[in-house]
Amino acid sequence: MSSRYGLTDQELAELEFEHRHTTDKRYAGWVKVVYLLGKGWSAAKVAHALLNDREMVRNQFQRYGKGGLAAWQRNDAGGSDAALTQHLRENLYLTAKEIAQYVEQTWQVAYRESGMTQLLHRLGYFYKKPRLIPGKANAERQKEFVEYYQTLKAKKAPDDPIYFMDATHPQHNPIAGYGWIRRGQDHQIPGNTGRQCINLNGAIDCAGLCPIIRYDDTIHAQSTIALLQQIEQQHPAAARIYVICDNARYYYSQLVTEYLSDLKIQLIFLPPYAPDLNLIGRYWRFFKKEILYGKYYQTFALFKQACDDCFVASNCYKEALRSLLTDNFQVIDCA
């Protein structure tokens, strides 16, 4: 007796024995596919019954036909799936079709785009936007800063705060973020033709979660000094105030250096090209999501009022900010 896929009774018996005695669910699934095909099931029926893709069903039979059970066992020990995973870790493809072409050229296994998409999901891959990182990031210097920061937190006096400081420049224009929209329909958001923006200079204490924000015409040494004065006024009992900032040129200016010479404020500079270490960056992203994502303000005055309202309502956001502004730093290694 033989099936339409050409399996003998002995081959079917071997497959049944393998399925009964293996503890590897994935291997058992491959055996079941070929066994059912050998019993006369169509590829469509097997795919439907086992919740698989028809191409995967056919490909597994082809793999079995070329190398028998040993073909799966080699794959299980680190064959094509493991090699594909390693290849995708090192190379970025924009479409599943391109990956299918690579697989066919490398392993002579054919997939349609839909079948490759399902395979990628099974391997734990999802279609999402890559994340840009600074090309000159130095992982070792970032790790040194994280260690220094943890030591500072442990040794500082209870009344001595640690602030993270930086500026941002939100534009009077909505940001089209993701949202739930009915299939086949668009959700339109009006935009503004100008590029008018607000210059915000700010600092946040990750313990108290109360941001100190300034509106300035320009962010420079003078506006930085004004912000530092506001920070100092908030902590009359502190013996030392630590302010962590990036390497913007105005932080190194003579005006700022002279202003700080007799004060209890100490600037701590982050390693270059390490934006993820400046926790106020997370606050600014949260702020922009609240103000700009999917929201249109007809006039610049309305836009500025929305910013004011967000800062006034800071206490309402403390729970969200507490889970966001944690010490869970991500060290960027572009090597």
How would you explain this protein's 3D organization?
The chain is α/β, with parallel strands linked by helices and 335 residues long. 48% of the residues lie in helices and 8% in strands. It has helices at residues 9-21, 25-38, 43-49, 54-76, 80-90, 96-107, 113-122, 139-155, 221-233, 254-260, 280-292, 300-312, 318-324, and strands at residues 162-168, 200-205, 212-215, 241-245, 265-269. It has a 5-stranded mixed β-sheet, with helices on both faces. α1 (9-21) runs antiparallel to α2 (25-38), α2 (25-38) packs across α4 (54-76) and α3 crosses α4. The radius of gyration is 30 Å and the shape is elongated. The two termini are 59 Å apart. The model is unreliable at 74-78 (pLDDT under 50).
| The CATH superfamily title of the largest domain | Ribonuclease H-like superfamily/Ribonuclease H
Total domain modules: 3
Strand count, sense and barrel status of the largest sheet are: 5 strands, mixed
Strand residue content: 5-15%
CATH-scheme architecture of the largest domain: 2-Layer Sandwich
Radius of gyration based on Cα positions: 30 Å
Low-pLDDT stretches: 74-78
Distance between the termini: 59 Å
Order of helices and strands: HHHHHHHHEEEHEHEHHH
CATH class division of the largest domain: Alpha Beta
- Report the average pLDDT across residues: 86
Shape: elongated
Helix- and strand-based class?
Answer: alpha/beta
Write out the strand line-up for the largest beta sheet, numbering strands in chain order. 3-2-1-4-5
Query: Do you know the CATH topology of the largest domain?
Result: Nucleotidyltransferase, domain 5
Helical run tally: 13
**How much helical structure, as a percent, in the residues?**
40-55%
What's the total count of β strands?
5
InterPro entries: Homeodomain-like_sf (IPR009057), RNaseH-like_sf (IPR012337), RNaseH_sf (IPR036397), Tc1-like_DDE_dom (IPR038717), Transpos_IS630-like (IPR047655), Winged_HTH_dom (IPR025959)
Protein name: Transposase
Domain Winged helix-turn helix: 91-147
GO molecular function: nucleic acid binding
